[in-house]
Amino acid sequence: MTTFVRSWWTVCAALVVVLGLAVSGAQQRPAVPDVAIDADDIGGVVTGPAGPEAGVWVIAETRDLPVRYIKSVVTDDRGRFVVPDLPKASYSVWARGYGLVDSAKATAAPGQRLAITAVPAPNEAAAAHYYPAIYWYSMLKIPAAGEFGGKSAIPARLTQPAWISAMKNTGCVGCHQLGQAATRTIPPALGTFASGAEAWKRRVQSGQSGTQMFGQLNGLGEVAFANYGDWTDRVAKGELPFAKPQRPQGAERNIVVTLRDWMNEKQYLHDLISSDRRFPTVNAYGPLVGSPEYSSDTLPILDPVKNVATTFVAPVRDTSMPLSLGPGHAAGLDALQPSPYWGTDRIWDTRANNHNSMFGRDGKLWLAAAIRANENPAFCKQGSTHPSAMAFPMERATRHIAMLDVKTKKYTFVDTCFSTHHLQFGYDANDTLWTSGGGPVVGWLNTRQFEKTGDAAASQGWTALVLDTNGNGKRDAYTEPDQPPDPATDRRINAGFYAVMPSPVDGSVWGSVLGVPGAVVRLSPGANPPATALAEIYNVPMPGFGARGADIDKNGVVWVSLGSGHMGSFDRRKCKAPLNGPKATGDHCPEGWAFHQYPGPGFRGIGENSAESSYYSWVDQHNTFGLGDNVPMSTGNLNDGIVAFKDGRMVVLRVPYPMGFYAKGFDGRIDDPKAGWKGRGLWAANGDRTPWLIEGGKGTKPLAAHFQLRPDPLAH
Prior knowledge:
Radius of gyration: 27 Å
Structural class: alpha+beta
Distance between the termini: 65 Å
Helix content: 10-25%
């Protein structure tokens, strides 16, 4: 064969190889589809080796704006997606989904279409990395029922429900998500230990909540440390979750999640507020305001239109008051042991200690915030002529009320005799602001009167919680909780409100009672509440337990987050026994309760359950999200988002990125009732006390999340 012929065949063979590779590559790379988009959208298709990838997330992220901005959508059944309404910026765009690992990140601008190649997970461990925390936390071992009641080293006073609840929403998961990558592993910076149990003993002493965390686990017995240590040891050895999540289905594919960061990388947010729950068009397109609780006096304010974050420092009236940290508080002044992230730094430094805020119908913000030291003024105490003090004097209050005009930044102090925790406006002409956190009393403020007169003392009131145990329909002399009951008198109960819920039905005010089993309480104020208010209490029956946050719907039904892994509902209209009288002391209406199990796997060995540890529930009375009026929802603290209960099934509003989203409160707002899905949505903050444990790690800031519901996955 001549040199020319050999060369020709060599060239031909090379061309065949190149053409073959080109054809193969063309088959592997998905074609960019003609998905309809606007100039501010990014659209396209996600395709894997087996074809279109349905029910996976497409994430667009940019740091070009004043705040970090992330938007996530879900693909339809043909793998198509539209990421709508993006501000002008350069975005990293990629796909994430169950059964996959993250795809390569593409750079795109609004108005572009993309073809994204999905990457199957090479093994089960790689796939499980993306599972929500609940799939990992459900691997935790729970002591068998036979180990309680003094039959083991577990303190005899504890029941199995109490132990479980403490490991969930009334304890550990009341402050942190557990099960995400940061908590199912032990950080090397913590040190080296002889066992997993010893590692956990050291871990929970870290930081300014170390005293509280260590004390709580220590109170559950050595088995608490042992079981946490066993859990992380098994994970370290490669054990994987026993259950797998399902990809988003139905309405879950229509959800758009927009995240913006704000505040700073060291301090946390308890929650945020966007509107007045009674009138959800209040503050339309306006700023969101965060509640930083123990972490800071600096309130973060986020403009979601301009994507700009600013701050306001909440003052206190008594500038010499001590920090709201240390004994008597749920956070310490100093770290019990150094944090593996921040060492011995005092990263929390608050006096105002703003736990929760509410917008009023005029757009002013009302805060549960301290304004002074704990000692109450004379008008609150014994000997005062204040009607409430004459009935039940109050010596101390640890958190009060303040008002912020967000536009002018005028801050007004409201000195209350009762402590506050959560706030909620009533449906009366006085715009009465009802509060929880008062311990033995429930307090309120007539905001109309206060704004008119500035007289805090005359505008406030409080009442003890008194059961009508003699059944005569009115409040009489009562026995104290530590005294024997007297059938001829009424009885006072210690059932401090955790959540507070004015009813839109009948003027009553409901509260949830934290604990195991927990309860809900109905307060009927009467004509002169300090003297006439009567209470009713309804304990949570099995299989429910562990009441925490709660809300009320337009029919007067109360919805409660339960540590048993249920959303509980209580409907007083279903009660068969007398609602007052000697037997109406809490266990007289089990038929009023119903239980709806949260999604996700449960702990093994304790029967059918969900490991979900919901912190708070809220009812969308006015269809601010789009699932309809009166839809109850809960924080899905181990499901990375929010869980809605609609038509008998749970709908998960999941934040796919960054993994580890944990909300403590949320609300809904309608920015424009005529704008369809674009004019409404839910707002929540990433409220974990350790925001640096979310995906991204140290340096990550708290996030504000906006959840919206499109009519279909391609709506734009």
